[in-house]
Write a structure and sequence with these properties.
With 425 residues, the chain is an all-alpha fold. 65% of the residues lie in helices and 1% in strands. The chain has a two-stranded antiparallel ribbon with strand order 1-2. Helix 13 crosses helix 14. The termini are far apart.
């Protein structure tokens, strides 16, 4: 037994922790977590790299074609990527929305930026604030990054639906080179919307209800086409409700299995509806957003009558060849949609999404923007699935040449509209 004068070592457990060592331990844990997350990300994205790289190559081809057209027309090059709708998005990113609707003495609304949904321009503003880039270049960063995420999402969706790496890759690349895809090289919102829609549709078919809800909300803040994604979620929820349990009873609306999909379906439209309601508050009328679409932008629902009339005109009367090209693009897209319906292995929500996007694109009267139909159909990426499966059986070089030709054509189509026709793509 030690004497009172013998020094006794204090209990190590009772010593106060060294703050330096604790901080170092937290940093080490954070570093390890970051490394692990990075490895998981690389592992997840690696299979989709051909699709992402192909998407970026298509954008490069678009820019080359745009530059050649600009040189031939002796008009500006880079500024054109931020023209037309891009000007509206840049205006919102720079100055925000108007606080009231301007109306003409005749009682009609003027063109105004509340027609455009906030998801894309506010993301452009965020990137601009972080990087110091102007809204034009920040918009291009958002578009290119969103498109890369969309290509990844389309690959993941295609792989889940077909089980084929090659089919999934071509599926993503067909979207990247579609006739209206030049807007994926401009300050337009289609790339961001498809990023949300592709991953959202994958979450729906995998019945990941929380992720599906979040992605539906984000898509709804980007474009009103999100109604198609919400409808796909609703169909998936209905399938759950109609499912029979082992005892033969149906799950039903109040079943425990249906609770999450039903709640997700009820909440999913709040993104798109919330913005429309806000516009109604600004305009002091509940239908203000639809009123602006109709009276200012000449966009209204007409069951596709005007689309058929314009197609008939351009197929039977002498006019600009570009509109004849657009007419054939519409015909081929509808044929692809019908072809895609024949695949019974594809889940019903996927078919519903593609059909509704096509329905919204073709039943909206837009005599001013008939040439924009290929862009409006761009989010209907699901219709390309059977063509991707067919092309996957082609020789690699043949498929590559077709895809490169598609990228060049999409660049020419929009560049022609911008520089020769001088109209909105």
């Amino acid at each position: 037994m030690p004497s009172p004068s013998t020094p006794v070592a204090p209990d190590a457990a009772k010593l106060p922790a060294d703050p330096t060592s604790r901080g170092a331990d937290l940093k080490e844990r954070a570093r390890a977590a970051a490394v692990a997350s990075g490895r998981r990300f690389v592992t997840a994205v690696r299979p989709a790299l051909p699709a992402i790289i192909g998407y970026l190559i298509a954008r490069a081809v678009n820019l080359v074609v745009l530059a050649l057209m600009a040189h031939a027309a002796k008009k500006p090059f880079w500024s054109m990527v931020g023209s037309w709708d891009g000007k509206w998005f840049r205006d919102i990113a720079d100055f925000g929305y108007v606080d009231k609707l301007p109306v003409s003495p005749a009682g009609k609304p003027y063109w105004v930026n509340v027609e455009f949904f906030p998801g894309y321009p506010y993301l452009v503003r965020l990137v601009s604030n972080i990087t110091g880039l102007d809204s034009l270049n920040a918009g291009m960063v958002v578009t290119f990054a969103s498109g890369a995420v969309a290509a990844w999402g389309l690959y993941a969706l295609g792989k889940h639906l077909t089980g084929s790496h090659r089919t999934a890759t071509i599926f993503a690349l067909l979207w990247a080179v579609a006739p209206g895809s030049m807007v994926l090289t401009m300050v337009y919102s289609e790339a961001l919307f498809v990023a949300f829609a592709s991953w959202g549709l994958l979450a729906i078919v995998k019945r990941q209800w929380t992720a599906a809800l979040i992605l539906c909300l984000c898509a709804g803040l980007t474009r009103n086409t999100a109604f198609a994604l919400v409808a796909a979620l609703g169909v998936a929820a209905l399938q759950v409700m109609l499912t029979r349990r082992d005892d033969g009873t149906r799950v039903g609306l109040l079943g425990a299995e249906a609770r999450r999909p039903v709640i997700a379906t009820v909440l999913a439209p709040l993104g798109v509806l919330g913005f429309i309601v806000w516009v109604g508050f600004i305009g002091k009328r509940w239908d203000a957003w639809f009123w602006i679409q109709d009276k200012a932008f000449n966009l209204r629902f007409d069951f596709g009558i005007s689309t058929v009339q314009w197609m008939n005109k351009y197929l039977t009367h002498l006019g600009r060849p570009i509109y004849v090209v657009c007419t054939f693009v519409i015909i081929l897209s509808v044929a692809l949609m019908v072809w895609s319906f024949r695949n019974r292995k594809v889940p019903l929500p996927v078919h519903v999404y593609g059909a509704l996007v096509m329905f919204l694109a073709l039943t909206t009267s837009n005599g001013w923007f008939f040439q924009s139909k290929p862009r409006f159909m761009l989010p209907a990426f699901t219709i390309a699935l059977p063509l991707a499966a067919l092309m996957a059986r082609w020789p690699r070089k043949v498929a590559g040449v077709v895809l490169l030709a598609g990228a060049a054509f999409s660049g020419w189509y929009v560049s022609y509209l911008l520089y020769v026709v001088n109209t909105n793509p």
